Amino acid sequence: MVKKKDGRIENFDRDKLNHSIQLALHKRPIDNERIERVISAIVRQLETTGETEIPSHTIGESVMTALLALIPLLMYALLLFIKISMKLKILRNLLRV
Q1: If 0-12 CB within 10 Å is exposed, 13-18 middle and 19+ buried, where does residue 8 land?
Q2: Residue 43: helix, strand or coil by DSSP?
Q3: Cα separation, 9 vs 5, whole angstroms
Q4: What is the pTM of this model?
Q5: How far apart (Å, rounded) are the C-alpha atoms in residues 29 and 35?
Q6: Whole-angstrom distance, CA of residue 23 vs CA of residue 26
Q7: pLDDT tens over the chain, length 97 residues
């Protein structure tokens, strides 16, 4: 169960968690299998607390921590993109000469 900021209690919805993470990673080079592993890790972490009601901000913090762990992958993709772009820019400059 998830305890919202306004005091409401809702059932935990894995699909809602998945949707939120998918939105955060939209157009990012993270494959669905890795996203699913992140979601499973978050769910396991929440289950191991033993709490019957988990505050929504706790779930949000878990998601932020998991997304921060993906930053090295995103940085690698960015560096790879820059490397390829620079090669293309150098090639274009050489072709102009």
Answers
A1: exposed
A2: helix
A3: 9
A4: 0.66
A5: 11
A6: 5
A7: 888 888 889 998 899 888 888 887 777 777 888 889 989 998 998 888 888 898 888 888 888 888 878 777 667 666 776 776 677 677 667 777 5
